[in-house]
Amino acid sequence: MRPCFQIEIVTPKKFVLNGLWFGSKKPKRVIVWVHGLGSSMFSKLGIVDQLVDKETAVVMFNNRGHDKIASVRRTNGTYVKAGAVHEVFTDCVDDIQGAINFAKKQGAKSIYLAGHSTGCQKAVYWASKKGRGVKGVVILGPMSDYYAELVAQGKKAIKKGADQARAYAKKGKGGVMLPESVWRWPWIADAQRFLSLYSGNSAEEIFTYWDTSRSPRTLQSVRMPILVMLAEKEEFSDIPARQIAAWFEKHLRKGRAVVVPRVGHSFKGAEKAVAAHIKRFIQG
């Protein structure tokens, strides 16, 4: 059991995000953690518990993609639809910047960004657009959501969903949810979210290891060091983890990729090993 502080983050665009601060109020370094699709600030606390020490604090916060369906409040008291179903991927830049700004105000000399699952896309996308004020990025389980569903559902199912999503978007109904007859629970999504996740060519489709003929320009544009951590028994890909690691190392400007043995996408059971890799990265 580790104590923490409840925090409230206000983003540059004046959205209010809830969060938790683990560690000293005046640390030497801060890790800003970005959770995955439909997850929350309560995920990966086992890893956080191993990371926090006298010099290191961790910020966990609910980005706009928390849980399946949610809402996010503006400082003026109005609300917008959010959650994995309704979030707009590019809003992650505002969310992450808000958390980084909060960490800066605490006086930390070094700030790092970490993401898990779809939080990896968000962390790398932020780094490609902003990139200032952070010394490095850690991504755990950076799987392509498109390729994961391609493997699980097949091209026919994805095309059916994409056709319906594009029909809604064409009519200005990007916020309308796809019917369950088109796309199944629990990975329901509105039209714009579906196209972002599963079209294969959106701003969110950053990790294109599934098509080696494509150039991952967003990833290649990131100048800061990136530590990529892949699960040996990753269940959201049929491509071996070491092959994916080699793809990342080919395209990273700075950094490296490691495969964590004997674990799946959640990295459960390897919290100490994951934290050890991260500590070497941020202290190196």
UniProtKB/TrEMBL annotation:
Organism annotation: Candidatus Kaiserbacteria bacterium RIFCSPHIGHO2_01_FULL_54_36b
Pfam family, one: Hydrolase_4
Annotated coiled-coil segments of the chain: none
Top-rank lineage group of the source organism: Bacteria
Protein name, UniProt field: Serine aminopeptidase S33 domain-containing protein
Classification via Gene3D superfamilies: alpha/beta hydrolase
Record-annotated Serine aminopeptidase S33 domain positions: 26-242
